């Protein structure tokens, strides 16, 4: 009997896709402190978003504190990007305020529902599971 060879690691297919919507958790990490970042990161403000090799303008369309954490420590932010970029959960990204390049933050892309029938569209919020980003 011949044993079938299995790969050493069964890697799942990547969860990425091109999207114009980026949702993630951000913390300030530049010369400005967390309070200044939280004040600057308002709905409607424009930011330079760097993710993978892409640098693109993004507008804040939603923001919220993450659970009970102070906004100066951590924010959940959704950006509408100027063009589609490859995004997948867990990717790190950086943002800089368009009007204040010293206002910086680093983030991690949050979960998205990739079972949506449209491609290249915006990620849909993941079902409420008690884990991950709040809606």
What does this structure look like?
- With 135 residues, the protein is mainly β.
- It has a domain at 18-108: Beta Barrel (Elongation Factor Tu (Ef-tu), domain 3), CATH 2.40.30.
- The protein is built from one helix and six strands, in the order E-H-E-E-E-E-E.
- Strand 2 (46-51) and strand 3 (54-65) form a beta hairpin.
- Residues 114-135 have low confidence and may be disordered.
- This is Polysaccharide deacetylase.
- It comes from Isosphaera pallida (strain ATCC 43644 / DSM 9630 / IS1B).
- Residues 114-135 are annotated as: Disordered.
In short:
This is Polysaccharide deacetylase. With 135 residues, the chain is mostly beta strands.
How would the blueprint of this fold be written?
Elements: E1 17-28, H1 34-40, E2 46-51, E3 54-65, E4 75-87, E5 92-97, E6 100-109
Antiparallel strand pairs: 1-4, 1-6, 2-3, 2-5, 3-4, 5-6
Region (Disordered): 114-135
Protein name: Polysaccharide deacetylase
Question: What descriptors fit this protein?
Answer:
six-stranded antiparallel barrel, mainly beta, Elongation Factor Tu (Ef-tu), domain 3, 135 residues, disordered C terminus, 6 strands, globular
Q: Enumerate the strands of the largest sheet in spatial order, edge to edge or round the barrel.
A: 1-4-3-2-5-6
Q: Number of helix segments? A: 1
Structural class comes to mainly beta
Averaging pLDDT over every residue, what do you get?
80
**What CATH architecture label of the domain at 18-108 applies?**
Beta Barrel
Distance between the termini: 53 Å
- At the fourth CATH level, what is the homologous superfamily of the domain at 18-108? Translation factors
- H and E string: EHEEEEE
Q: Give the strand tally.
A: 6
Please state the CA-atom Rg, rounded to the nearest Å: 17 Å
Provide the β-strand percentage band: 35-45%
- Residue windows where pLDDT falls under 50 for at least 5 positions: 114-135
Main sheet record: 6 strands, antiparallel, barrel
- Name of the level-1 CATH class of the domain at 18-108: Mainly Beta
Query: What is the general shape?
Result: globular
Work out the helicity level. under 10%
- CATH names the topology of the domain at 18-108 as Elongation Factor Tu (Ef-tu), domain 3
């Amino acid at each position: 009997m011949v044993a079938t060879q299995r790969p050493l690691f069964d890697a799942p297919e990547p969860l990425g896709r091109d999207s114009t919507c980026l949702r993630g958790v951000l913390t300030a990490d530049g010369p400005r402190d967390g309070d200044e970042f939280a004040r600057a990161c308002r709905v409607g403000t424009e930011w330079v978003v760097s993710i993978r090799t892409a640098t693109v303008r993004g507008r804040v369309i939603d923001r919220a504190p993450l659970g009970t954490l102070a906004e100066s420590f951590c924010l959940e932010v959704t950006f509408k990007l100027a063009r589609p970029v490859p995004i997948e959960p867990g990717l790190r990204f950086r943002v800089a305020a368009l009007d204040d390049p010293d206002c910086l933050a680093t983030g991690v892309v949050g979960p998205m529902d990739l079972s949506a029938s449209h491609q290249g569209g915006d990620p849909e919020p993941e079902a409420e599971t008690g884990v991950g980003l709040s809606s």
